[in-house]
């Protein structure tokens, strides 16, 4: 592929992100085997390279692996999502200073656009980025560079798998790209799901190069325009732009599994109230308001009991006010409660979301506008105080009772980057 285009796309991926975050704030964990557990300390969802080398499997239930992990002296931690979210925010803010455009693709991945210098060599830029992030956050990056997003994904995989790459691979600067594409299984190509992979393999298409060479009309008949764009991107055409502005979410959901199944209405109501408070905070942080509030609860999928119920309420006026949302959620909790079942999971959903700036304020009376302004100021003040001092500095009484059902996080690390009281101090 020639380098006629001065603009390149890079996929920047933080390696072993959850484990790397934990190792960054705790030097005793560095270069040691470490696994991170899912919600409720259920199963393994992340591993350090040292743990991966011990052939510890992703998704393994913790209770089955606990004895083996102890024998191998593997460190085990509960998932600390506050830490990971904060580290992700710091990572993305640093990256913004070294690229033209950025699309935050996930908590640990971003597509960025960058202009090539006169010599077309972006390796010095990539090495600078890796050094910067490691120096500031203690996290290593893998950087794949190409002409478009799909090829950047391929380049990122090659950067991970090729020893001499040192975490950086520029696909556009390699003449023998065909040989590299032959190393990428179709099931590993970005945008190819399980069913599509099975169909492609049934047609004799086993790797990325064979997908490139496949007849366009055959792909189009089966996969439509999405499949055609994917093939064109693999060939080097740019079809998928960098999405700079985050799309408004269709819904915000906050849900959790319980450490102990719930049988009382009081406990279910309290759990949903806690989730409602969190959901309303998320909405306000994104300048969103909801017009439909939903709740759900269910038994365990492994239980002999099978119960699942949901309820929702549509609003005349969209809101992000926690007081309003709590009243509705409390009422809805009674609709889904059934004393005959042991509930293992519940959650709230904020749906039909609208950006605050697009709301039709002209339809609201002056008095309503005045009340709304007071509400906004109150919520903003609460959010500000909680952010400054502690997430739970100011909260609602219904969420403060003793909770036997609370999700297990028995192995949680410090929130050193978000809670000033948890920052280690040096005593001289």
Tell me what you see in this structure:
The chain has 13 helices and 13 strands. The protein is an alpha+beta fold and about 425 residues long. The protein folds into 3 domains: about 1-175, Reverse transcriptase/Diguanylate cyclase domain (Alpha-Beta Plaits), CATH 3.30.70.270; about 175-245, Orthogonal Bundle (DNA polymerase, domain 1); about 250-385 and about 395-400, 2-Layer Sandwich (Dna Ligase, domain 1). The chain has a 5-stranded mixed sheet. Strands 9, 10, 11, 12 and 13 form a 5-stranded antiparallel sheet that branches. The radius of gyration is 25 Å and the shape is globular. Residues about 1-5 and about 360-365 have low confidence and may be disordered.
Features:
428 residues; alpha+beta; Alpha-Beta Plaits; DNA polymerase, domain 1; Dna Ligase, domain 1; 5-stranded mixed beta sheet; 5-stranded antiparallel beta sheet; 13 strands; 21% strand; disordered N terminus
What CATH first level of the largest domain would be assigned? Alpha Beta
Unreliable runs: 1-5, 360-367
Q: Please give the share of residues in helix.
A: 25-40%
Q: What is the average per-residue confidence, as pLDDT, rounded to a whole number?
A: 86
CATH superfamily of the largest domain: Reverse transcriptase/Diguanylate cyclase domain
Topology, number of strands: 13
What is the structural class?
Answer: alpha+beta
As laid out across the biggest beta sheet, the strand order is 5-6-1-7-8
Order of helices and strands: EHEEHHEHEEHEHEHHHHEHEEHEEH
- What is the name of the CATH topology of the largest domain? Alpha-Beta Plaits
Helices, by number, come to 13
What value does the Rg take, in angstroms? Answer: 25 Å
- Major beta-sheet overview: 5 strands, mixed
How far is the first residue's CA from the last residue's CA?
60 Å
| Coarse morphology | globular
CATH architecture of the largest domain: 2-Layer Sandwich
Beta strand %: 15-25%
Number of domains: 3
């Amino acid at each position: 592929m020639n380098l006629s285009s001065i603009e390149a796309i890079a996929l920047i991926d933080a390696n072993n992100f959850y484990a790397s975050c934990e190792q960054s704030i705790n030097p005793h964990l560095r270069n040691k085997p470490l696994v991170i557990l899912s919600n409720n300390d259920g199963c393994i969802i992340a591993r350090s390279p040292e743990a991966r080398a011990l052939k510890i499997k992703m998704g393994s239930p913790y209770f089955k692996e606990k004895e083996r992990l102890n024998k191998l002296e593997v460190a085990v931690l509960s998932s600390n999502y506050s830490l990971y979210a904060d580290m992700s925010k710091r990572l993305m803010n640093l990256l913004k200073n070294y690229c033209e455009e950025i699309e935050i693709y996930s908590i640990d991945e971003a597509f960025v656009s960058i202009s090539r210098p006169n010599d077309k060599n972006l390796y010095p830029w990539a090495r600078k980025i890796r050094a910067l992030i490691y120096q500031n956050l203690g996290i290593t990056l893998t950087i794949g560079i190409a002409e478009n997003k799909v090829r950047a994904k391929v380049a990122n995989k090659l950067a991970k798998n090729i020893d001499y790459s040192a975490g950086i691979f520029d696909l556009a600067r390699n003449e023998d790209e065909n040989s590299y594409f032959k190393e990428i299984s179709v099931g590993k190509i970005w945008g190819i799901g399980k069913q599509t992979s099975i169909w492609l393999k049934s047609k004799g298409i086993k790797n990325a190069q064979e997908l490139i060479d496949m007849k366009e009309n055959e792909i189009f008949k089966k996969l439509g325009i999405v499949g055609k764009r994917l093939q064109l991107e693999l060939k080097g055409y740019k079809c998928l732009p960098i999405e700079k502005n985050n799309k408004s979410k269709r819904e915000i959901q906050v849900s959790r599994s319980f450490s102990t199944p719930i049988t009382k209405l009081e406990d279910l109501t309290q759990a949903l109230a806690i989730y409602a408070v969190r959901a309303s905070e998320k909405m306000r942080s994104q300048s969103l308001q909801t017009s439909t509030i939903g709740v759900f609860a269910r038994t365990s999928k492994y239980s002999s009991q099978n119960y699942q119920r949901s309820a929702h309420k549509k609003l005349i006026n969209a809101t992000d006010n926690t007081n309003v949302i709590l009243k509705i959620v409390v009422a809805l909790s009674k609709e889904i409660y059934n004393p005959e079942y042991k509930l293992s999971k519940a959650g709230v959903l904020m749906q039909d979301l609208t950006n605050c700036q697009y709301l039709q304020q002209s339809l609201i009376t002056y008095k309503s506008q005045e009340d709304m302004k007071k509400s906004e100021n109150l919520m903003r003040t609460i959010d500000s105080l909680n952010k400054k001092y502690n997430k739970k500095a100011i909260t609602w009484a219904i969420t403060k009772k003793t909770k036997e059902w609370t999700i297990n996080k028995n192995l949680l690390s410090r929130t050193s980057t978000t809670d000033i009281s948890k920052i280690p101090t040096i005593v001289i």
